[in-house]
Amino acid sequence: MFAPAGNTAVMASVPERVSAAAGGMVNMARGVGTALGIAGVTLALHLAGAASHEAGARAASLVLAAVALLAARTASGRAAQGRVARPGGAP
Question: Which sign does the torsion angle of CA 5, 6, 10, 11 carry?
């Protein structure tokens, strides 16, 4: 849900001469995020899965919730500091 709006904000905030590099960085960040998300859930399932499948699913959900909260906190901190990119370069 956030990806299209986030990608638009990032790409709108960079100068046209570096748009190719910015697009590459956006795609790289998406790939790294996907890989880390899968690795985190797999680790949680593995570590807690020895007890039961239900415990593994609960642990994986907690890992995802913690990462989501950390991301929201980071984003809100950046917004409070005025460092959030706005589409079209608007302040």
Answer: negative
**Rounded to an integer, what distance in angstroms lies between the CA atom of residue 85 and that of residue 9?**
6
What is the rounded average pLDDT of the residues 41-60? 76
Is pLDDT of 22 > 80? yes
Mean of pLDDT values over 26-47: 84
Residue 70: which H helix or E strand, with range? helix 53-80
Q: What is the spatial distance between Cα 27 and Cα 79, in angstroms, rounded to a whole number?
A: 22
Contact yes or no for 51/62 (Cβ under 8 A) = no
Residue found by looking up tokens 């709006």 in the block: 5
Question: CA 74 → CA 3, 5, 21, distances in Å?
Answer: 16, 17, 24
Q: How many other CB atoms are there within 10 angstroms of residue 64's CB atom? A: 14
